[in-house]
């Protein structure tokens, strides 16, 4: 599990590309290295990956076909940066919201509005069926960052970013058309699915009670 509080950014230093598989190596920030072991979980742009090798501050991770298909990690090239967060520990402060590191879809940066000490970014969802889980003032994971949803339309939503978030994460360098990873808040998803199921059951019960023509 993760908290959505990005601990730093890491530069991609090498990629070993194979059919439907790649191993990439990042230069992990020094402050994130203590206690890191092979088999540990580290979120890259919100996607949970497993440490496969450690060589100083160069840390390797394997990316399977499904990860490359669903997330934006397959688009990375050497020199790109990713948001990184190590797995949460018991008694850690949860500054964001609990996140699993399982990316559901991606969204495209559709509009960027910048004003003094604030930036509003609008995202267009790749899978519009998931928009029902994105609610005004609800939580969402964007490239591993726990954020609060601002305005919501039928196919788009926005978030408001303070200078600290822009400085500490990769969102400050995003441009129109860039693809970002989306993790839906699991509690919101559970509530929406439960309400839909209950309403469907009620409708079915009412239909059964109505006299047949």
Automatic annotation (TrEMBL):
E.C. numbers: 2.5.1.9
InterPro entries: ATP_synth_asu-like_sf (IPR023366), Lumazine-bd (IPR001783), Lumazine-bd_dom (IPR026017), Riboflavin_synthase-like_b-brl (IPR017938)
Protein name as it appears in the record: Riboflavin synthase
First-level EC class: transferase
Cellular component GO terms held in the UniProt record: cytosol
Known catalytic reactions: 2 6,7-dimethyl-8-(1-D-ribityl)lumazine + H(+) = 5-amino-6-(D-ribitylamino)uracil + riboflavin
Annotated pathway: Cofactor biosynthesis; riboflavin biosynthesis; riboflavin from 2-hydroxy-3-oxobutyl phosphate and 5-amino-6-(D-ribitylamino)uracil: step 2/2
Highest taxon above the source species: Bacteria
Lumazine-binding domain: residues covered: 1-97, 98-195
Keywords annotated in UniProt: Oxidoreductase, Repeat, Riboflavin biosynthesis, Transferase
GO molecular function annotations of the record: oxidoreductase activity; riboflavin synthase activity
GO terms for biological process, alphabetical: riboflavin biosynthetic process
Reported function: Catalyzes the dismutation of two molecules of 6,7-dimethyl-8-ribityllumazine, resulting in the formation of riboflavin and 5-amino-6-(D-ribitylamino)uracil.
Pfam families: Lum_binding
Repeat (Lumazine-binding) residue spans along the chain: 1-97, 98-195
PANTHER family with a match to the protein in the record: RIBOFLAVIN SYNTHASE, RIBOFLAVIN SYNTHASE ALPHA CHAIN
